[in-house]
Every structure is written in C-alpha cells, then in structure tokens.
Amino acid sequence: MGAIDPTGRYIYVVTKETSVISGLQITHTQPSGGTNDGTLTPIPGMTAYTDATLKGPTWIMTDNTGEFAYVVNSLGNTVSQYAIQSNGSLKPLATPTTPTGSSPRFGTTDTNGHLFVANRGSSGGTGPNGPSVSVYIISPPSASNPGELTAIGTAPTPINGATETINVAVNPNGFLYVLDFGNGTTAGQVFAYGLSASSGVIGTVIGTAAPTGIAPTGIAVDPTGVLLAVDNSNDGDVSTYNIGTNGGVTPTSPATTPSDTNTKFITFYTAASGQ
Asked: How many whole angstroms separate alpha carbon 275 and alpha carbon 271?
C-alpha cells in the first residue's frame, strides 16, 4: 500500500510482511529532449526503512500540508508518526506512536487537520473493542509538538451493526463514510455519518447502511463530494453511489461496474482537464 504526498514530490510504500517503508522521489523537471518526467528515484535512507514501531503496517498516509506521514500498524494497534524531511526521508516524531482501537487496518486524513483510522475490532469484541473508528487531531506545524496526533474522545467510536470496519473516507462537504468488510463471503456495507469539519467529532449515522459487493476494501469520494465508489475484491467490480445533500448514499444505476479480479483500492483521477 502506498501514498503520494499532497505536493506530488514523494511516494511511500509499506510492506506488511517485512514491516518496512520504501520511499521514492518523483521527478517533475524534464531535461531538454528527455522523456523521463515522472521518473522515480530512491529517497536516501528510505530503501526498506524500518524501526521498532513498525508492526505489521497496513497503511501509510500524509497530512494535507505534506509535512507529516503516518503508518497504521495492524499488529501493534498503533499509528507511527513521522516528520517528512526536506529530502523526503522520514524522521520519527518525539512521541513515535499513538494508540488506536483493536486491529486497525486503513485510514485517511482530511483538509481540516484530522486523521481517521478504521479498526476491525477483536474477535467477539463490542463497543470500542469491536468495529470502530479512531479520530485524531493533527498538531499543526506551528505548534510545540508539530505533527503529533491527539485522540478525540476517550475511546474509538463504535460502528454499530458492522462486522469488520476496514476503511474510511471523508466527504469534503462534511460527512464520513465507513466501509464494513463483512465476513468475506456475504455483502459488505457502507455507513454514512455526520462529521464536524472543525472538531472532527463523528456525529449520528445517516439513514441505513448501503450494501456493497463481497469483500470490499477500498473506498473513495470524488472531489466534488457527490459520488462514492467502493471496490469489491471478491466480485471483480466497483459499486458506486450517489451522495445526497444530507450525506446519505444510494446506489447509482447501474449499481456496479466491472473491474478486475482481487482489486483492493480505488481512487478518483483529479488532474486538471487536458492532463
């Protein structure tokens, strides 16, 4: 799993099996007569980088300023915290980790300085020990503890009715979508919640959960906040939904589009017209 920082300078990839991070710099200047614009070159010190906090990492993401990176550790129930150095290398923050809920998987950041992590929950767990979402405030670069995460609330927010919360997406219009993997053999579902853009506090659930295909893992909201997409890894297709003005989701018509087998993640292409 990988992430590109918001300035488009670097790409970072985590490998769960070996608990390492690899970092590459993205070339943007094309030499005269050359054709290597977009070439990837290793970031010094970021070839199979590892440290003691990395334990079964499943996800990496950056904040909206491009100054900090965060890695979700599925085996450690933590998020590792890093500053992105001027050359793209990562340096652990003074507080290197922050705790999550049980068995975290994937997450996201928003443009308002918050970070969200979906926790699958422990076997048979309920409440904050079951399927849940952890929410954090990202300390701004100007603060005394820049980049460090502070949990919102004393415990993760339970996602009632979910089997295994696996991923989350934020709508720019102020809503949160939580993806439930299900049990891997029956349809998953998407929950919609109100969200305080300023505080990051998760509000009440909106309507009823919308069904997905089998074994969904990736979820994305388009930049305008009107369309939501989910990949269904066992079905080989993508489910799409219209987002209402109240944040609720309803399947489009048709409700799915064929993709490939065993797909895992999805995103919207956001480049300017003509690029």
From this structure: 6
Q: What is the pLDDT of residues 164-212, one digit of tens each?
A: 999 999 998 899 999 999 998 999 999 999 999 889 999 999 999 999 9
Q: Contact, 250 vs 232, CB < 8 A?
A: no
**CB neighbours (10 Å) of residue 256?**
17
Q: Which two tokens stand for residue 179?
A: 């993806």
Q: What is the dihedral of CA 262, 238, 166, 123, to 10 degrees?
A: -70
* C-alpha–C-alpha distance, residues 193 and 4, integer Å: 27
Query: What's the CA gap between 136 and 145, in Å, rounded?
Result: 14
CB 76 within 8 A of CB 53: yes
For 175-186, write each residue's pLDDT tens digit: 999 999 999 899
Architecture label for domain 2-158: 7 Propeller (2.130)
- In sequence order, which residues have a C-beta less than 8 Å from that of residue 135 and are 6 or more positions away? 114, 115, 116, 151, 152, 153, 156, 157, 200, 201, 202
What are all long-range contacts of 40-45, with beta carbons under 8 Å and residues at least 24 apart?
40/11, 43/10, 43/87, 43/88, 43/89, 44/87, 44/89, 45/89
- How far is residue 111's CA from residue 63's CA, in Å, rounded to a whole number? 8
Q: Which residue has the tokens 């909206």?
A: 64
Instruction: With residue 112 as reference, give the H or E element that holds it.
Output: none
